[in-house]
Design goal:
Helix content is 32%, strand content 25%. The chain is of the alpha/beta class.
Length: 247
């Protein structure tokens, strides 16, 4: 494997050995012929930080990988979607050159709604994983994530209840990743607090409106100014007496 030349054309991520990719076979289970290329790519993932991998990756869809496997094989790709199952793999057998720690069943956002199998070296802290049994923490997930990794092949896998007959085998893209970029949902408590805060604000606004309307309806009226008219009769009598007395 180490004798295979590293790509110098710039077509692949630095360190990829293209001649190893020629031995990878699609539409079958993992084959011993796939392993040299797989080890080469996983070693590169292990030695490279996640940010560098993201910057070098190209966007792709599941349809791209399924319909153009030769064009994307060995390429760093980025997929957006949802992880619905996360399994912690058993320790690698002695002599296996790298620890492949997690298997993720990833459903891209773009149709069709079929899985992509992701083998990852690590997952974010707190990400729910299980042992592959129904009902464990890694089963029945709905975790939004971005996956960046090397596309290796179209992998044959058992239907596992995904079709009308469980003995039918299906095909899924196999992507090798260092980790996944997890977009966790807000905790239940945070959502509850946000909802309560919104309700309190709405109640305060409604209360202010009610008080304002009530003030307008109960505002006291100013006393009406009496109409001006002729002076009362006693005033005229007093004026007449003053005239007669010469005052």
């Amino acid at each position: 494997m180490l004798d295979a030349p590293v790509d110098e054309t710039g077509k692949y991520f630095p360190g990829v050995r293209p001649s190893l990719l020629e031995d990878v076979t699609d539409n079958i289970l993992q084959s011993s012929d796939d392993l040299p290329a797989r080890f080469n790519l996983m070693k590169l993932l292990e030695a490279t930080d996640a940010q560098t991998l993201r910057q070098a990756a190209i966007p792709a869809t599941r349809v791209d990988l399924m319909e153009q496997p030769d064009a994307y094989r060995g390429q760093l790709v980025t997929l957006e979607g949802t992880i619905r199952r996360a399994v912690e793999l058993p320790p690698s057998r002695p002599g296996y050159p790298i620890e492949e720690n997690y298997q993720l069943w990833f459903f891209p956002n773009t149709p069709p709604s079929r899985p992509t199998v992701v083998i990852a070296l690590e997952v974010p802290e707190g990400f729910p994983v299980g042992k592959g049994e129904k009902g464990d923490p890694g089963w029945g997930l709905e975790e939004s994530a971005t996956v960046t990794g090397f596309f290796l092949k179209k992998l044959l896998y058992p239907a596992d209840g995904e079709s009308e007959t469980d003995d039918v085998a299906l095909i899924a893209p196999l992507v090798l990743a260092r980790t996944v970029e997890w977009h966790p949902k807000p905790p239940e408590e945070s959502r509850f607090m946000a909802t309560m805060l919104t309700l309190i604000i709405l109640v305060l606004i409604a209360g202010m409106l009610i008080v304002g309307v009530a003030n307008l309806m109960t505002k006291p009226k100013l006393p009406e100014k009496p109409e001006e008219g002729p002076p009362p009769p006693e005033t005229w009598d007093k004026v007449s007496e003053m005239d007669r007395s010469g005052e």
